[in-house]
Structure formats: structure tokens, C-alpha cells
């Protein structure tokens, strides 16, 4: 999608992410496992069936890793060592041999070559990362032309009143570990993508699953 780089107001900093997810890690699956399960499953179901290599950005505790079809090879990255430790333990415990690697890495500075994945998946991550535009640009770089970027999250509304409420809540949200100000429309305005679909998912349909084609 052509256009000027959108600016994102983001309350999150790397330090906030690390602190919040070190706190969440021991209880994350209990609190956010079942409640986000259906939308995560919808995101995995939206993967192109012929995808070979998938990058899961912000893989967290790896709660979705068992859901990927076994013919796909999955690499997960996350900024938080505490969350990743749980993902590694899960992969070992459940014998997830389709998981190629679980690596501590910043999504806005990916250490992978250009065009090295068929799909990048971001589940409840684009509303957490300190640099959403940089993260989108990096996912675009490492996904091959015509590949897909899938992002599911609770995105902010574009309606002015609800946007003001989101901004007002953002200091509290930062402490909790997410950003209430990232809207799907701003994400869709990042250059180099074609929005293929945008649909409501999850309990009550409050969350959105965006599917982008990478255009190069
Ligand atoms: C809300 S959790 C989502 C975890 C998992 N994807 C899920 O569906 O439950 C957000 C995750 O994004 C990670 N994260 C935030 N900023 C990141 C960044 N810049 N690079 C990599 N991971 C990041 C956090 O450490 C955390 O594990």
C-alpha cells in the first residue's frame, strides 16, 4: 500500500515491555490463555496452507505453537527472556519438532535475511511493540514478495471520542503492558502492504484479524 509513513503515538518503551512481561510471564497462560484462544486459532487457520516457513513475532509463552500445522517450520522471537523461557519449556515438554527456533530478539530489528519467511504472524503484539511502524517494516523485509503478514489484536477505534478515551487510559495500559492507541487503519497505512482482509474475531468479535500481502 503506497502512502506516507504513518506516525504512531506509542506509550510503550522497551523497558516497559521487559518489566511488564517479566511480571506477566508466570501467570500469562492462566490469564490470557483461554480468553484469547479463539482469535489465536482464527489467525493460525488463516495461514496460507502452502506456507513453509513462518515467523511468529512476539511469540511470548508460545501458547499458539501447538496449533501450527506440522508441515510448517516456525521460528518464534520475543524481547522478553521471561516469556521465551516458557515458550522453550513448552516446545520441549510437548515435543514441538516443527519449532525451528525460539530466539530473544527485537521485532523492530530482526536478525534474518530479506525474504526468508513466507509469513510473519503477530498475535497481540502490534499493540505492544514500542515501534509499530518499524516492526511492520521489518516483517515486510523478511517476508518474501507475495507472502503474508497476519496481525490479530484489540485495535483502537478511529472514532474521536473513543480515541480520546484510549489515550486517557494509555498510562495505565503501559503499566499493564500494552498500548491502547494503535488503530488497525494506521497499521494498514504502513507502505508496502496490501490489506487482503480485515475481520472481527474472538469472544464478542471485539478483536480484529488483519491479513496483509507483502508488496515489493
Ligand atoms: C501480549 S503478549 C502476546 C504473546 C503471544 N503472541 C500471545 O498471543 O499470547 C506480547 C508479547 O510481545 C512481546 N514484545 C513486545 N515488544 C516486542 C518487540 N519489540 N520485539 C519482540 N517481542 C516484543 C512481549 O515481550 C510479549 O511477549
TrEMBL record:
InterPro entries: Methyltransf_11, Methyltransf_Superfamily, SAM-dependent_MTases_sf. This is Phosphatidylethanolamine/phosphatidyl-N-methylethanolamine N-methyltransferase. GO terms for biological process: methylation. GO terms for molecular function: phosphatidyl-N-methylethanolamine N-methyltransferase activity; phosphatidylethanolamine N-methyltransferase activity. Its EC number is 2.1.1.17, 2.1.1.71. The lineage of its organism: Bacteria, Pseudomonadati, Pseudomonadota, Alphaproteobacteria, Hyphomicrobiales. The keyword Iron-sulfur does not apply. Transmembrane segments: none annotated. It comes from Labrys wisconsinensis. The keyword Zinc does not apply. Residues 55-150 form the Methyltransferase type domain. Pfam families: Methyltransf_11. Keywords: Methyltransferase, Transferase. It is an enzyme of class 2 (transferase).
